Amino acid sequence: MALTVSSRSVRLAVLAGAGVLAATAGYAVTDHADAFEGQAPPVAVATADHRTTAPATTPTGPTAPATTPSAAQAPPAVAGKAAPATTPATRAPGTAGDKALAATRVTARRLPDHTAQKWKELAPPSTRQPGPEFQLNECVTVRGATGWQQQGFISAHKTPAVQDSLGFPDAASAQAAYREVLAGMKDCEATSRALQKRYGLAADARVRQTATAGEAAAWSRTWTAVQGLSAPGAQANHIYAVRRGTVLVLLHFDEWDSAAPRSYDPKGDADVLAGLTR
């Protein structure tokens, strides 16, 4: 069904069964209508014809209530629903802005905890046109991007990592977007706990800043997640944000307790930020 309301760019991590794990683990992206304007929330869709098998065990989580969440929180995704017909338009690389985005790209070997995770790229990076808003997670929404390059990765445990590079018209706009990330993550523990309470889970979310370096910061969130923008179940999320000129670089990877024991030590986040700022 074609969308009739303004859309925003969102990353999703929802397990939807064999055949689409590559997209769901890789936070495949879809533009969707704001659920608070009467549209049903979406699910991730497969990209780049990449296929893999789902893990033997998938995270479990609460069933979304019948009522629509308020605008204060992101709506949960519903597994099994068809994705909206409208998806972000890809565009051919080659502009100066696209080259700036490409210059920030990381490789699988440079991702955190590579020895244990054995990261692999899901597909070549995709350059897309962002919507008016880009939602990183339940806590962070970034506005004003004019360019967007995304690279998805998958670990040996079938858990996801994603790099999103967002281009802006000028350095001041990129700085403002970076401050939006800082503000959202500052309140992320309270935001996450409020979401957990709403869906009947123990409010166990903990968020801490693990490293900073100039206009670069890293965080770790441990919680029992609500299905939607995150896969459901106990997990750790690792979030990195770096402002490089006119580009905001965002990196995110998850450790799901249902997939494997947590192996990453956030003490290494200072090195991760150093790599993202080069």
Characterize the structure shown.
This protein is of the alpha+beta class and 278 residues long. Helices cover 19% and strands 27% of the residues. It has helices at 21-25, 96-102, 114-117, 171-186, 188-198, 269-277; strands spanning 7-11, 29-33, 120-121, 126-128, 133-135, 141-143, 147-154, 160-167, 206-212, 216-225, 233-244, 247-256. The strands form 2 sheets. Strands 3, 4, 7, 8, 9, 10, 11 and 12 form an 8-stranded antiparallel sheet that branches. The radius of gyration is 17 Å and the shape is globular. The N and C termini lie far apart (43 Å). 46% of the residues are buried. The model is unreliable at 1-7 and 12-94 (pLDDT under 50).
Please name the defining characteristics of this protein.
globular, 8-stranded antiparallel β-sheet, disordered N terminus, 27% strand, 19% helix, alpha+beta, 278 residues, 4-stranded mixed β-sheet
SSE topology sketch:
Elements: E1 7-11, H1 21-25, E2 29-33, H2 96-102, H3 114-117, E3 120-121, E4 126-128, E5 133-135, E6 141-143, E7 147-154, E8 160-167, H4 171-186, H5 188-198, E9 206-212, E10 216-225, E11 233-244, E12 247-256, H6 269-277
Parallel strand pairs: 1-5
Antiparallel strand pairs: 1-2, 3-7, 4-7, 5-6, 7-8, 8-12, 9-10, 10-11, 11-12
